[in-house]
Specification:
DHBP synthase; Rossmann fold; 5-stranded parallel beta sheet; about 20% strand; binds threonylcarbamoyladenylate; binds magnesium ion
Length: about 350
């Protein structure tokens, strides 16, 4: 199949392109589109055949449920029942935006879309192209991140193309996304709200609206043997081809350790990449002999770090990097989402930097 690429205009969605894309989804086809978090791979959420196609295109296990994207509040009542007070409060505060809520589903939503579960993940995104597309497609668009299963979520249309060209009908190119990490997922089907995936809407933000919110233990504790409540968090996502190790500690000790480790890896013939904040960049460039040193921006600018992380992991893949070292980042607020993704990419390999590069 030939994948059509449509460039969205700077000043808003291209009406003709959106109409074509909506038509494709209504007929059971697949269209990748930008959202404020990452690119999504959209199909008709109410059509079981479309959901099956999504799993096939991504190479994704079909027990991993999809998020249903809507473009107006009232549509939630068609796919979720009951809609609890907590959902209304969260929607008032954060929708449209980078928040997904898990609710009990109605019969309208096929099991193929929810990976066999009786619950449904609902998201009302705020990106203009996404909203126009969902509307044109009939109002209910199932969309996982538009990467091949196991690769970092795409923050640019170019990466969607790398992973899915020839496997989907169309890609809407809306440029680089704003946030760069997937939406926060909060489960509202149990007595207490629980975060299943941290994201841009932080625990503190949710608590300011709902009061106490819990976090799935499997997110906080790498050694936790329980299965994660969001099936997708079980898979080793976001995995770069190179072996990634995170070093934490005082900046000086981290710089020294990373440089020493990098030089040793070079001696073994590895191709080394370093993920650094601006603050230590010149140190690595001078002392590490690494093949590629990339900045995520200033370590105090969480938004810049979140936006660049997946892009950098993909760039290292393209450059054939075999060993990656990364600084660790503060875990408060949005930092929790950043470290959650970085730790998953590292297969939870994190070490304390003691200086002198042991
Ligand atoms: O930001 C985002 O959420 C992006 C954009 C495209 O909207 N989408 C996204 O979808 O990240 P995906 O499929 O890559 O991740 C969805 C996650 C998976 O971990 C899945 O297991 C979980 O949501 N999930 C979906 N439905 C669920 C349900 N009913 N119960 C628990 N977890 C669910
Ligand atoms: Mg994904």
């Amino acid at each position: 199949m030939e994948t059509i690429l449509i460039q969205m205009e700077e000043n808003g969605p291209d009406r003709d392109g959106i109409a074509r894309a909506g038509e494709i989804i209504r007929r059971g086809g697949l269209v990748a589109f930008p959202t404020e978090t990452v690119y999504g791979l959209g199909g008709d959420a109410l059509n079981p055949a479309s959901s099956r196609k999504i799993y096939a295109a991504k190479g994704r296990p079909s027990d991993n449920p999809l998020i249903v994207h809507i473009c107006r509040w009232r549509d939630i009542y068609r796919i979720a029942q009951p809609v609890p007070e907590a959902a209304k409060k969260l929607a008032d505060a954060f929708w449209p935006g980078p928040l997904t809520m898990i609710l009990h589903k109605t019969a309208l939503v096929p099991k193929e879309t929810t990976g066999g579960l009786d619950t449904v993940a609902v998201r009302y995104p705020m990106d203009g192209t996404a909203l126009a597309l969902i509307d044109a497609a009939g109002g209910f668009v199932a969309a996982p991140s538009a990467n091949a299963s196991g690769r970092p979520s795409p923050t640019l249309a170019r990466y969607v193309r790398e992973d899915l060209d020839g496997r989907i009908d169309m890609i809407l190119d809306g440029g680089e996304v704003g946030i760069g990490l997937e939406s926060t997922i909060v489960d509202l089907t149990e007595e207490k709200p629980m975060i299943l995936r941290p994201g841009y809407v932080t625990k503190e933000m949710l608590e300011s609206v709902l009061g106490p919110v819990e976090t799935d233990r499997t997110i906080l504790d790498a050694d936790c043997k329980l299965p994660p409540r969001a099936p997708g968090m079980r898979y080793r996502h976001y995995a770069p081809k190179g072996e990634l190790t995170i070093l934490e500690g005082e900046p000086e000790a981290v710089a020294e350790t990373v440089c020493a480790r990098s030089r040793r890896a070079k001696e073994r013939g590895e191709k080394v990449g370093i993920i650094a904040a601006d603050e230590l960049l010149s140190r690595y460039r001078a002392d590490s002999r690494a093949d590629s040193v990339k900045s995520v921006g200033s370590r105090t600018d969480e938004e810049a770090v979140g936006r660049s992380l997946y892009r950098i992991l993909r760039e290292f893949d393209d450059e054939g990097i075999t060993v990656i070292f990364s600084e660790s980042f503060p875990e408060g607020g949005f930092g929790q989402a950043i470290m959650n993704r970085l730790l998953k990419a590292a297969g939870h390999r994190i070490e304390k930097a003691e200086g002198e590069g042991k």
